[in-house]
Every structure is written in C-alpha cells, then in structure tokens.
Amino acid sequence: MxxxxxxxxxxxxxxxxFGERMIITGWxxxxxxxxxxxxxxxxGSGDPVxxxxxxxxxxxxxxxxxxxxxxxxxxxxxENLDLLLHDARHHPVDTFTDLRPDSRLYQYQVDHDxxxxxxxxxxxxxxxxxxSDTTDLLDSxxxxxxxxxxxxxxxxxxxxxxxxxxxxxxxxxxxAEDTTRLVSPVIIDGEQYGFHTPEGLAGLLxxxxxxxxxxxxxxxxxxxxxxxxxxxxxVHNGSDTDDSEVDGARVGPAMDIVAASDTPSEAADHAxxxxxxxxxxxxxxxxxxGL
Length: 291
Hints:
This protein has 291 residues and is an alpha+beta fold. The chain has helices at 64-71, 81-90, 104-119, 135-140, 198-208, 217-231, 243-259, 264-276; strands at 7-13, 21-28, 33-40, 49-54, 75-76, 95-98, 120-121, 124-126, 144-151, 154-161, 164-171, 181-188, 191-193. The chain has eight helices and 13 strands.
C-alpha cells in the first residue's frame, strides 16, 4: 500500500500458519477503504511473501464485513472485529491496536480493562466499604429500606427518611476472592454525592443532607441554647414555666417597641434599630453567632 493507513489492527495468526506471519487490517482514510494484508515474513527466498492484499483502490472495500470474511481462515479474530473496524473508520485520530495475545500491548490492554472492570461497576466506582460499614450507620440516622432492584453488575437499595430518598448501589463480587461492596456515588433526593470512607458516607447521610422537617432532641436543645443567649434564662428549658410566660418573654421587647410607636412604619423602623443596636447586656447577641 502506498498510502498511509490511518488505523491499524494487528491480529494473531491461526495456529496452523507456517512460519512467522503478520496480519494487519484497518481503515485507510486517504483511499476511503478498509484494507487487509497478510505477509509471511520468513519464506524460502528470505523475502516476505504477500498472502493477501486487499483495499488498495479508492473506495474498494466499504463494508467491514468483507474484511472479516477475508480473514476468517487466516486470523484469530475477535467476534466484534467488524465493530472495531467501524469505530476505526470514524475515529478522529490515527489508532493502532494489537490483538495478539503474546504481545506486550495486548497484555497491557487486557490488564487495563480488567482493572477498570474491577473499579467501575454497577454505575459507579467500587469502594472498600461493605455491609458492616452501612447497617448501623443507616439505622442511627433514621433511614429505612423501601425497595431493592437488580442493576448491571449488582443491585440497588432504596431507603427513605421523611420526605427524603436515598439509593445505595452494591457491586457484586468480580471473582471468587472479591466481596459485595458499596459503590460511589450515593444518590440522595436525585443528586449524586461521592465518598470513599465511612466518615464521608456518614457526613452525607447526616450532616450533609439533614432532614429539615424533623426536630430531634439535640436540635431542640441547640435552639434553646441559642435563644437563651439572646433572651436570657426565661426560655423554656424543661421547667414548669407557663408557655404563655415564655412566649411573652420572647416577644416582649418587640411588643414594647410597637406599643411606643405611632404608626406601623415607625414601629418597623424602631424594631430595625433595636436589632441593629442590641442592649449592652445582651451578651448572646454579640457572641459571634451571626444571628
């Protein structure tokens, strides 16, 4: 071939091939044709012998199936060789693929594909977390399971907490030495969040995506602490103080401002002024809490 081939695929000769044989195929973008060449490199004369040479004319071979049929009895070709040729035709850059099992490039590609298959399964990247890392975590943060479904290379479990939804995906064992492991990212309310440690997952299930509609005992205590800093010790803290007294203590300063104002707009101005310049003994307001 006088023209440069823009894609090149080297194949393994069949076991019955005599001597050392080279088989290449691919797509020649200049001639707009698929091509195939077979050379016996060591013949009796010492010069390579051309066994097959097709795809030398412009547009000579337009279908990859023609190449596959021509090489059927000469090469150990993968079942998807026609697809490889088709992809080579439409690839934007020159490519070289070595499909000979004994070649270093082939072994590297097999190892690369194996590593990728181990890392990326069930729609995400496989972590080192297993069931023992999630069971107590889900229970402690109030998630309960509502559904399980099969997905490629694993299964997905759906959980609920109030109005929130959570999906965890699990990759099934890749081989006998592997175990079922959790996949990143998780899906919370339709959004994906990545993680790789139990601490990262815990942050997503609790701190990163808290349930804004549920007040826990810890949340109520934290709110009371903030209000006590602002309003003093009159905030209800579990004592027998009447609720009306507590409410009065909370809204008292604002009611005094409204009562001393002639118009609603004047009351609003006074209220803004009171918030902008709190009393000097209001230590909670100036405690750096940003309220």
